[in-house]
Structures are given as structure tokens and as C-alpha cells.
Automatic annotation (TrEMBL):
It is a multi-pass membrane protein. Belongs to the G-protein coupled receptor 1 family. InterPro entries: GPCR_Rhodpsn, GPCR_Rhodpsn_7TM, Olfact_rcpt, Olfactory_GPCR. PROSITE patterns: G_PROTEIN_RECEP_F1_1, G_PROTEIN_RECEP_F1_2. This is Olfactory receptor. GO terms for molecular function: G protein-coupled receptor activity; olfactory receptor activity. It comes from Eleutherodactylus coqui. It is found in: Cell membrane. Pfam families: 7tm_4 (PF13853). The lineage of its organism: Eukaryota, Metazoa, Chordata, Craniata, Vertebrata. The keyword Kinase does not apply. The keyword Coiled coil does not apply.
């Protein structure tokens, strides 16, 4: 029988220090604006510039869309909570946050693995790159990322929603994530925690290992390139992706492979700021600054807009 008597949860938020909440609101609002503008810019540039209609930028469009949505799952609620005393969220809203957070997060992890495979093909077999990474292959890999991410999140969402919650209802986080919500359940959550560690941990670790080996093979082909300029050009197509990979995988593996002690939950709250606020804002900057084609396309758009004026 469903024993859930709680209709809403209270979020502790990022900090209980009222004096610094307004400052944090301004800082995180700026990060969120950078996330929106940066990722929308990449999505727009890759669509309107014909030279960027390649597999690499198809995956980059997907990554930017995911980052935009992923940050929007938690950040707007966090920003509004900085301005109120009681930070509440409905039971349904909490379950939705859990689902979309894990859906978009796991989709991004799988997509980054697919992007490493794309870079491997581009460097190891440049003459047949477009033939191998044709539109059907790219669409299949992207759809697999989205579908696998959805069902991965659905497992945690359904199992969490079916638990009885009788009180207390205070979530030790600034948004609803599985581990802090499970602490409030009035039932044994061993199965939920084991599945979280095994499924999410396996997903993140496996994806990281596959990405790592992709770059091991890439490095072998880089060593075969005789000119320093050629190696530099090949490496430049991978550097932005590698930076994003280490930012995301490092925090994800650290968060979901540990036990959910109270001290660990406090650490998770701080770490979550990295992959919900900082990383989605940094990704478009990393890909723009470290990608020659993106810089050229961006400058062309600016020049066209100035000429029209």
C-alpha cells in the first residue's frame, strides 16, 4: 500500500547563510545566462553555417541542447530559492527533477562516448570519415544516447516514486536528487542505493573507459603523423572534447560511486554546482575558444550582422 503522506519537500538549498544568498543569486544567474546564450549560439551557428554540417558538429549540437536543458532542471529553481525563506517543491515536481536530471545527465555521458568514437574515426580514417560516419550512423548513435539515458533515468524515477514517504520532508540538497530523497523514505532503500551505485556507476565508468581507450588509439595515430603542424591540427579537434569529458566524468563518478553518508551528501551538494551550473556554462566557451572552425563561423556571423547595419 502506498504510504506516501508527504505532498511537498523542503529543500535545504546551497547554503543557509542569508547574508550571502543575494550574492550567490547574482553569480549563478550570470552563469545561467552564459549557459543559455553560449549553448544557443552554438546550436544556431552549427545550423546556419553549411561548413559545420558534419558529424562532429551534429553531436556538438546535441551536447549543447542537453547542457541547456540539464542546467535548466535545477538552476532556475535554485535561483528562485535564493529569494525566499522556505524552499519547497511538490512531490511530483521532485520526482520530475530526479527523472530529467538523470535522463539528461546519462544521455550526455553516452553522447560524449559517441563523440570520442567520432574523433577516432576522423583521425584514424580521414579519407573515409564521412562515408563511415554517415547521417544514418550519426542519427543512430544520437538516438541510442537519448533512449538509453531515458530508460536509465526511468528505473531510478519509478523505484523512488514507489517508496513511502511519511516524514521528515527536508531534502539535504538544492534540488531533488536520488540519494538525498532516499534518505527520507520510510522503507528499506538498499535496493535503490545498490541499483544507483551499480547502474549509474557502471554507466559512467564504462563510458569513461571506452572514451579513454578511444584516445589511446587516437594517440597511436597522432604519433604516426610526421609533421608537428599536422599533429597539432589533429589534436585541436580532440582537446575541447577531452576537457569536457574530464569535467563531467570526474564529478559524476565521484558522486555516484560513494556511500550516501550525511557528510557525503554535503559534499555532493557542492559538487553538484560544478555539473549543473559551471560545466554547462564552460562547455560552449571551451568549444568556441579551442575550435578554429567555430571561431571562424562566429566571426563570419558578426561580420555579416555589422555589414547589414
Amino acid at each position: 500500500m502506498n504510504q506516501t503522506s508527504i505532498s511537498e519537500f523542503v529543500l535545504l538549498g546551497l547554503t543557509d547563510l542569508i547574508d550571502i544568498q543575494l550574492s550567490l543569486f547574482v553569480i549563478f544567474l550570470m552563469f545561467y545566462m552564459v549557459t543559455i546564450l553560449g549553448n544557443l549560439s552554438i546550436m544556431t551557428i552549427t545550423q546556419i553555417n553549411q561548413s559545420l554540417h558534419t558529424p562532429m558538429y551534429f553531436f556538438l549540437w546535441n551536447l549543447s541542447f542537453i547542457d541547456l536543458c540539464f542546467s535548466s532542471v535545477a538552476v532556475p529553481k535554485m535561483l528562485s530559492d535564493f529569494l525566499v525563506l522556505k524552499k519547497t517543491i511538490s512531490f511530483g515536481g521532485c520526482i520530475c527533477q530526479i527523472h530529467f536530471f538523470h535522463f539528461l545527465g546519462s544521455t550526455e555521458v553516452i553522447l560524449l562516448t559517441n563523440m570520442s568514437f567520432d574523433r577516432y574515426i576522423a583521425i584514424s580514417n580521414p579519407l573515409r570519415y564521412l562515408q563511415i560516419m554517415n547521417s544514418n550512423v550519426c542519427m543512430t548513435l544520437a538516438l541510442f544516447s537519448w533512449i538509453a539515458g531515458f530508460f536509465h533515468a526511468l528505473i531510478h524515477t519509478v523505484l523512488t516514486a514507489k517508496l513511502p514517504f511519511c516524514g521528515p520532508n527536508i531534502v539535504n540538497h538544492f534540488f531533488c536528487d536520488v540519494k538525498p530523497v532516499l534518505k527520507l523514505a520510510c522503507a528499506d532503500t538498499t535496493l535503490n542505493l545498490n541499483l544507483l551505485i551499480r547502474i549509474t556507476g557502471t554507466l559512467a565508468t564504462t563510458s569513461f573507459v571506452l572514451t579513454f581507450f578511444s584516445y589511446v588509439f587516437i594517440s597511436k595515430f597522432l604519433l604516426r603523423i610526421k609533421t608537428a603542424t599536422g599533429r597539432r591540427n589533429a589534436l585541436s579537434t580532440c582537446s575541447a572534447h577531452l576537457t569536457v569529458v574530464f569535467l563531467l566524468y570526474g564529478t559524476a563518478i565521484f558522486t555516484y560511486l560513494r556511500t550516501s553518508t550525511e557528510h557525503a551528501l554535503d559534499q555532493d551538494r557542492v559538487i553538484a554546482v560544478l555539473f549543473t551550473v559551471v560545466t554547462p556554462a564552460l562547455n560552449p566557451i571551451i568549444y568556441t575558444l579551442r575550435n578554429k572552425d567555430m571561431r571562424k563561423a562566429f566571426m563570419k556571423i558578426i561580420q555579416r550582422s555589422l555589414m547589414h547595419k
